[in-house]
């Protein structure tokens, strides 16, 4: 979708498992701020390890052969 510049509604992205949560526009910044505060309170090592795991998964997925039609 990203490579082809396809647009998708937020609800469709949520229903297809591409996002974990939808934020309400009414108090969007307050919701973002509360999540940022939670992350800021985490030890740096937790965030670094999480980022590393995500990078490893992306690398593994990019190395996985795709099915040809």
From TrEMBL:
Family annotation (InterPro entries): ClpP/crotonase-like_dom_sf
Full protein name: Uncharacterized protein
